[in-house]
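Reading a protein record of the kind used here takes little practice once its layout is understood. An example of such a record is reproduced below.
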Amino acid sequence: MTYTSDLLENLYNAFDPSQPLPAGDPVYVDCREVRGDGEIQVDLGKEMLLSKRETYHLYGGHRGAG
């Protein structure tokens, strides 16, 4: 393997999305301030029901998804 492929392999395997970070881990980023506190089902539902045009939505995650 080359340096680049070793680096990429090591980087890829350094993260395990199925395991939560331990409490106090310095790599944790608190996103609550920018996440918002709205009800996504209500907000999207209103837009879909009330719009006279087609709407398209990409919903990529939710609270607690990591």
Remarks:
- Helices lie at 3-13, 32-35, 40-50.
